[in-house]
Amino acid sequence: MFLFVQDSQDAPLFGEDDENTKLRKSIIRHPLASFFHLFFRISAILVYLLCDIFSSRFIVCMVTIILLLSCDFWTVKNVSGRLLVGLRWWNQVDEDGKSHWVFESRKTHNLNTTSGAESQIFWLGLIVCPIFWIMFVFSTIVSLKIKWLAVVIMGLVLQWANLYGYVRCKVGGKSSLKSMAKNYLSVQILKRAMKKTEGS
């Protein structure tokens, strides 16, 4: 079950009380969060790519990559999403034992405090890095490095989970992804039908 919260007073987001400082959109207001948003995910990719050069011990490399991926997952989910784009998501279990996904976005009147540069850093890092892990899964299978398969699948799952969660946060208050896809397809079909009727 999904719960969408758009304007929650119970859980204020970080930086919402900073309305007096309306900085230009191109300024990076949270350099530390921006750095660590990219640091852990890029480090995990680099360790995976350069592991054979620095260490021949598989367990050391695997543990290092998993620790970096875990730090990345926690940082993106709990810190950089809130600070850089004003979004957050989490899972909570109610008294009946049912799991509920909660997606929340910063209040609309505070969106002018969001930096465009930070938003670009956030979404670029969030979208590009899972693409690398998809390529690593295929290259691991093709090169028959089966021992690395668990590591690259974990990288893909952790980074895909954050990407999915934040995409749901971004569009969640308006509609679900399934209804967005249906709306898009119906608009495309309608456009094609209109073109055909104009041409005949």
TrEMBL record:
Family classification: Belongs to the TVP23 family.
Keyword Transcription regulation: no
Annotated Gene Ontology cellular component terms: Golgi membrane
Source species taxonomy: Eukaryota, Metazoa, Chordata, Craniata, Vertebrata
Coiled coil region boundaries: none
Species, as recorded: Anabas testudineus (Climbing perch)
TM segment ranges: 32-50, 56-76, 121-142, 148-167
Pfam families associated with the record: DUF846
Membrane topology type: Multi-pass membrane protein
Record-given protein name: Golgi apparatus membrane protein TVP23 homolog
Keyword Nucleus part of the UniProt annotation: no
GO biological process: one example: protein secretion
Primary location recorded for the protein, binned into one broad class: membrane
Keywords: Membrane, Transmembrane, Transmembrane helix
Cellular compartment(s): Membrane
Source superkingdom: Eukaryota
